[in-house]
Design goal:
60s Ribosomal Protein L30, Chain: A; Ribosomal_eL30-like_sf; 11 strands; alpha/beta; five-stranded mixed sheet; 2 domains; Alpha/beta knot; SpoU_MeTrfase; single chain; transferase; elongated; about 35% helix
Length: about 260
């Protein structure tokens, strides 16, 4: 176990650099903070590069065969992304899923995220897609970084093993069309209610930006547009709630 107390330490500099998206992708690593998150990383076999502890923190975890670094309280606070940190995080190696990894026989329930920006929403959607039994999440360019610490934390471990593809919308569309998936987009500009339409066995749900909805590209290339009825005065649903409602209908249809 190495103890680090200098901000000039090269290992500390590398850890701190992972707070920036550009550096994360250069190093192919990201930070995952919190005791439960670390427990899930261990449980689900995430590729852990190192464990980082705050000075004075003790945990009943099996960390054998893992590199463990202890940071002084001041240094740990500089890399922590939470207000009330528990004093533990891990550096995890990214899973590189490319378009060549798409399996049309296995990836039949797909979620497509179009320019979603809120880390909490995206993390919650990843977790919900996992719970709903979806096979793949496609994140089009323009979305918040899936390895943003807040996304990782909100996903509650699901991001360690869920298949997540990061690509342009053009590449994602080509993959979905090539697999013969029905493309269903959430939009207010339709008369089709989500609970009154038929979903195909192979279905890709598209969810749009929190403020502006899906863009014209997906509207023009969708097989079906659906909306969720609203009975109160609210202008719209939270996108994570919309995702849960839509996915539940797809799963219900398939379970029948």
């Amino acid at each position: 176990m190495a103890y680090i107390k200098s901000k000039d330490n090269e290992k500390f500099k590398t850890i701190k650099s992972l707070l920036a998206s550009k550096k994360r992708y250069k190093e192919k690593k990201y930070l995952a903070e919190g005791l439960r998150t670390v427990e899930l990383a261990l449980e689900h076999g995430a590729d852990i590069d190192m464990v980082i502890l705050r000075e004075g923190s003790e945990f009943d975890l099996d960390l054998k065969d893992l590199r463990v670094h202890t940071l002084s309280k001041d240094l740990y606070d500089q890399v922590s992304d939470t207000e009330n940190s528990q004093g533990i995080m891990v550096v995890v190696k990214m899973r590189d899923l490319s378009k060549e990894d798409f399996d049309p026989s296995r990836h039949r329930k797909v979620l497509v995220l179009d320019r979603l920006q809120d880390p909490g929403n995206v993390g919650t959607i990843i977790r919900t897609a996992d719970a709903m039994g979806f096979d793949l999440i496609c994140m089009a360019k323009g979305c918040v970084d899936v390895y943003n610490p807040k996304v990782v934390r909100s996903a509650m471990g699901s991001g360690f093993y869920m298949d997540i593809l990061l690509e342009s919308q053009e590449v994602i569309l080509s993959i979905l069309k090539g697999a013969g998936l029905q493309i269903v987009s959430s939009s207010l500009d339709t008369d089709n209610y989500y609970d009154e339409v038929t979903y195909a066995d192979g279905c890709a749900l598209v969810l749009g930006n929190e403020a502006n909805g899906i863009n014209d590209f997906w509207i023009e290339n969708s097989d079906l547009l659906v909306k969720i009825p609203m009975y109160g005065k609210a202008e719209s649903f939270n996108v994570a709630i919309s995702a849960a409602l839509l996915m539940s209908k797809v799963i219900k249809r398939k379970n029948k």
